[in-house]
Amino acid sequence: MKMEPNSSLDTQVGGSHYQMGGIQPIEYIHANNLSFIEGSIVKYISRWRNKNGVEDLEKIKHYIDLLIELEDNVGNRKK
Predict the structure, then answer these.
(1) Phi-psi region at 33: left, alpha or beta (left = phi > 0; alpha = psi -120 to 50)
(2) What predicted TM-score, i.e. pTM, was given to this entire model?
(3) Are 57 and 76 in contact (CB under 8 A)?
(4) How many CB atoms lie within 10 A of CB 34?
(5) DSSP letter for each residue of 39-56
(6) How big, in percent rounded to 5, are the helix, strand and coil portions of the chain?
(7) Containing H/E element for 22?
(8) Sign of the Cα pseudo-torsion (10, 12, 17, 18, in order)
(9) What letter would DSSP give residue 9?
């Protein structure tokens, strides 16, 4: 009987905080073709209770501020 290799999704380096939900953040990010910033927000919101607590919420806030600033700059260039 040939053994199939485990999926990369079965392995997490540095903990199991991403494997605690029904779908891993990377699967959602990839399936929805999210940008780096959007993906980071999904990643941090998915893990904050099980990893870094409020520090991850602060990271989310920072990424949202960055996204707003970048989108505002894109909008200003179109005018």
Answers:
(1) left
(2) 0.72
(3) no
(4) 16
(5) HHHHHHHHHTTTTTTHHH
(6) 65, 0, 35
(7) none
(8) negative
(9) G
What count of Cα atoms within 13 Å lies in the side-chain half-sphere of residue 44?
Answer: 19
Are 30 and 24 a contacting pair, CB within 8 Å?
no
Structure tokens at 11: 């392995």
- Determine the Cα–Cα distance for residues 50 and 35; give it in Å rounded to an integer: 24
Structural domain spans, the chain: 22-78
Q: Which among 16, 13, 11, 47 has a CA at the least distance from the CA of 29?
A: 47
Burial string for 41-79 (b: 16+ CB within 10 Å, else e) reads bbbbebbbeeeeeeebeebbeebeeeeeeeeeeeeeeee
Tell me the pLDDT of the chain (79 aa) as tens digits: 454 567 766 766 555 666 666 788 999 999 999 999 999 999 999 999 999 999 999 999 999 999 999 999 887 776 5
- Strand, coil or helix: what is 32? coil
